[in-house]
Specification:
Chain A has 286 residues and is α/β, with parallel strands linked by helices. Chain A has 10 helices and 13 strands. In chain A, the strands form 2 sheets. In chain A, strands 1, 2, 3, 4, 5, 9, 10, 11, 12 and 13 form a 10-stranded mixed beta sheet that branches. In chain A, strands 6-8-7 form a 3-stranded antiparallel beta sheet, covered by helices on one side. Chain B has a single domain, classed as Glutaconate Coenzyme A-transferase, CATH 3.40.1080. Classes of the chains: A alpha/beta (286), B alpha/beta (262).
Chain lengths: 286, 262
């Protein structure tokens, strides 16, 4: 079945449920911030979040109490500092304890690939000598049946819904993204359901170097959300709001300041356009 | 990341600047370099802007042959993808490029490092109840074992240079000699650590990092005071060649243009 056009609000209501395992993927570029905000507005709870590089949007979801478990490989605010809500959850159990399952990037990438390939596990030459391999039940060792080499095995990810951003969809719901495309193709093909936020719908795709196209029938819903990746970026549509990432350090460090910001800009805005207006209103250049 | 703003007027460069310049000098010729976030990225860009224009920069975001002319705040910045020879997926960068042995040198930062070049970027304190939770492994565990060699760069302090890591995120050199022999089939591990005080090189004879070069104005006592184990000082201890005008000019040029682009 081809992708259906849905508003982001309807897509989240239909495909993201309490207790689900959800991947909002993106590697610096094309991070689906608008979807994370909508999940917070709709008050989802007990989510297991998956992401190689959890950044501000995962910090917000964790701080707002939506998340019970995080599967990841690098949790930080690149070039700006820490994820203070993530750290508060891990270090102090606030707003509640956060279970973590962590890997290296190579391990997470292989877990996505295995899942996208319909295999129960994947193999890599990795983790040798690391403490992670000692404590994680999701890292085991296997012997290559052909060469005898000992290699690491990691289980496929089991994802209920993946949400990504792409630049464009066509009229039939095929989507195209270019620039840094991270692990988004594997995230979509790993999940039972998928939602794609796009900048716009076009009649026909213009070829781009290094573009990735996902056929309509691999996607459940397409939502048109201009600047849906803000403060991340969408190559050829927007620039990364590096100042916002720097300012998040101050907002997220303090529990009260964090909650006030989330209330003003997410809980009390009805959608992404209103969120963007709320930032413009306080002088933030979007 | 806060920059050290104070400039020692006698020396005319900051301790961060000499660290970046000296780290950059480790990249030469046509090396293919897997670049970590932060200080390594700055040094790698400086190398390309000065003595090593033919070095190939590879970023874990999938950008191969990126040619940034300013410091990207993250490894997924548009300046990397727009200037790259190829942009591949993240699973591909780790499997076809890193794991398959196509990278000459890995360039990493660290929160904590020990005498064997093992790295902690996971947690300070107990893993289950850390006093400081750090970002985690990222690409480092496989970068340290799959690249031909590894350069580590970080600021020198007793909190960073520790006798025993709270968590071994990435292995530098194995304590077990048989494991160390096995790993050599795929890569030789960290060979140099460049700090804001000195340069340490791995010595196979002692199987430890030894201080081989002190930056101008730094004493052995300074280094010992900021190192959490009785670090070996090389018999052939040298003084680091100071930054040249050209190196400093290039570094300040792109640092400034990065600030303006934000």
């Amino acid at each position: 079945m081809n992708a259906r056009p849905l508003t982001l609000s309807d897509a989240v209501a239909e495909f993201v449920h309490d207790g689900d395992t959800v991947a909002l993927e993106g590697f610096t570029h094309l991070i689906p911030f608008a979807a994370g905000h909508e999940i917070i507005r709709q008050g989802r709870r007990d989510l297991t979040l998956v992401r190689m590089t959890p950044d501000i949007i995962y910090d917000q979801l964790i701080g707002m109490g939506c998340v019970s478990k995080l599967i990841f490989s690098w949790a930080g605010n690149p070039g700006a500092g820490s994820l203070h809500r993530f750290r508060d959850a891990v270090e102090n159990g606030y707003p509640h304890p956060l279970e973590i399952e962590e890997h290296s990037h190579a391990g997470m990438a292989v877990r996505y690939q295995a899942s996208a390939s319909g295999l129960p596990f994947g193999v890599l030459r990795g983790y040798a000598g690391t403490d992670l391999s000692q404590l994680s039940p999701t890292i085991r060792w296997i012997t290559c049946p052909f060469t005898g080499e000992e290699l690491a095995a990691v289980p496929a990810l089991s994802i209920d819904v993946s949400v990504i951003c792409a630049q464009q969809a066509d009229r039939r719901g095929n989507v195209m993204m270019w620039g840094i495309t991270g692990v988004q193709k594997e995230a979509v093909l790993s999940a039972k359901h998928s939602v794609v936020l796009v900048e716009e719908i076009v009649d026909d795709f213009t070829p781009h170097v290094n573009a990735v196209v996902l056929p309509s029938w691999t996607i459940d819903a397409v939502s048109v959300v201009p600047s849906g990746s803000y403060p991340s970026y969408s190559e050829d549509y927007s620039e990364r709001a590096n100042d916002f990432y720097a300012q998040w350090e101050g907002i997220s460090r303090d529990r009260v300041a964090f909650h006030a910001w989330m209330t003003n800009h997410v809980l009390e805005t009805k959608d992404h356009a209103a969120f963007m207006e709320s930032l413009t209103a306080i002088g933030v250049t979007t | 990341m806060t920059e050290v703003a104070e400039i020692d007027t006698a020396l005319e460069w900051t301790s961060d600047e000499i660290m970046t310049v000296v780290a950059a000098r480790e990249l030469t010729g046509e090396m293919v370099c897997f670049v970590g976030i932060g200080l390594p990225s700055k040094a790698a860009i400086l190398a390309r802007a000065t003595h090593a224009p033919n070095v190939t920069l590879v970023y874990e975001s999938g950008c191969i042959g990126a040619k940034p002319d300013r410091l990207p705040p993250s490894i997924g910045d548009g300046v990397l993808s727009r200037t790259a020879d190829a942009v591949v997926s993240v699973p591909e960068i780790f499997s076809y490029w890193l794991q398959a042995g196509r990278i000459d040198v890995g360039f990493l930062g660290a929160a904590q490092v020990d005498k064997r070049g093992n790295i902690n970027t996971t947690a300070v304190g107990e893993y289950d109840r850390p006093t400081v939770r750090l970002p985690g492994a990222g690409g480092a565990p496989e970068i340290t074992t799959s690249c031909g060699t590894v350069i580590i760069t970080l600021r020198h302090s007793a909190r960073a240079f520790v006798e025993k890591l709270d968590f071994v995120t990435s292995v530098g050199h194995f304590e077990d000699e048989e494991l160390e022999r096995q790993r050599a089939r795929h890569g030789h591990g960290p060979q140099v650590i460049v700090t804001d005080l000195c340069v340490l090189r791995y010595q196979p004879s002692s199987r430890e990092f030894e201080v081989t070069s002190l930056h101008p104005g730094v004493s052995v006592e300074d280094v010992l005071a900021q190192t959490g184990w009785p670090v070996i000082i090389s018999d052939d201890l040298e003084e680091t060649a100071p930054p040249t005008k050209e190196e400093l000019a290039a570094l300040r040029r792109f640092s400034e243009s990065s600030a303006h682009s934000r």
